[in-house]
Amino acid sequence: AGLMTLRARMGVVVATGAGPRPPRLEGIDTVPYLTYETVFSLEELPARMTVIGGGPIGCELAQAFARLGSKVTVVAKALVAREEPAARAVIERVFASEGIEHVPARAASVAPGTSGGHVLQCTGEQVVEGDCLLLALGRVPFVEGLGLDTIGVRLNPRGNGIAVDRQLRTSVRGIYAAGDCTGCPQFTHYAGFQGAIAARNILLPFHSQGQLSTIPACTFTDPEVARVGLTEEDAVAEFGAAAVKAICRDLEHVDRAVTEAETEGFIKIVYRARDLSILGATVIAPVAGELASELQVAMEGGVKLSKLASIVHPYPSFAFAIQQMASEVLYEKLARSTDLYNLLGRIGF
């Protein structure tokens, strides 16, 4: 088909997305491999699948193929490495219980197997043989071949996406960029949000912010792994150990999880010790994404744990645990002020 020329009167939104990161692996051109874009073209279930990469895409697809019946090996220094150590430990246990082998190493080279498939050499001299190789090495923005440099659209300092300001404006007036092509955190929900904000900023007066400081993330393994805001480690690094506290409840102490026999996981909330404002949360649960969304709303709305304690949640929902945890934090704070309350009572307050 021939090229089509479109002329924009008010502005243009560049939303070209991102694609699989090109592999830098010795011998990769000698063996066939799949990415998250091509894996769904498989017509037969591979007997042995090797997944290189332990991020969200690698973990989600590894568990899916293992449950379909493949013998899956994941080669990665760590599983869900960006999450809290306790979250990583849960996924390690779950994968081990489902027969998914984790090789904590990096892929060094790959070569064809003697009877088809591949032989993967890992750091640490471990060798993995398989029938199907899946690369889950992350994603890179699509910015090449668009002619952006010819019109002055600059890339960000890391060179991995289009540079935009908080209103998603590029360096060229009238051209906006949104989603994965900007090098921002690569989530479908965030890209959709930015696309809507970019269009709104073009079409309507005044400007809304399209870059957010807090973005919920969820890896859709079973159980799900969700995170919003700061981890405890990050919060301590930013505010100091004395200013940060955390409360954690294992799912074995959440009634809904017990009734559903889904007790592998936890809910952890990080908060400011002084005023009980929520700084972040990590949730591993069958509905972790939903629970993290509630905590995201609380953070954005300035709802502190002291207020969450008085917001009635239905029992026995998973979310009821959030109210219980908030109440525990509040009662602990009240207990430290018992002497003051007794004094106020004696003088008539």
From TrEMBL:
Source species, domain of life: Eukaryota
Limits of the FAD/NAD(P)-binding domain: 12-195
Cofactor(s) the record lists: FAD
Alphabetized InterPro entries for the sequence: FAD/NAD-bd_sf, FAD/NAD-binding_dom, FAD/NAD-linked_Rdtase_dimer_sf, Pyr_nucl-diS_OxRdtase_dimer
The Pyridine nucleotide-disulphide oxidoreductase dimerisation domain, residue ranges: 215-325
Record GO terms (molecular function): flavin adenine dinucleotide binding; NAD(P)H dehydrogenase (quinone) activity
Keywords, alphabetical: FAD, Flavoprotein, Oxidoreductase
Family: Belongs to the class-I pyridine nucleotide-disulfide oxidoreductase family.
Name recorded for this polypeptide: Uncharacterized protein
Organism the protein comes from: Rhizochromulina marina
Taxon lineage: Eukaryota, Sar, Stramenopiles, Ochrophyta, Dictyochophyceae
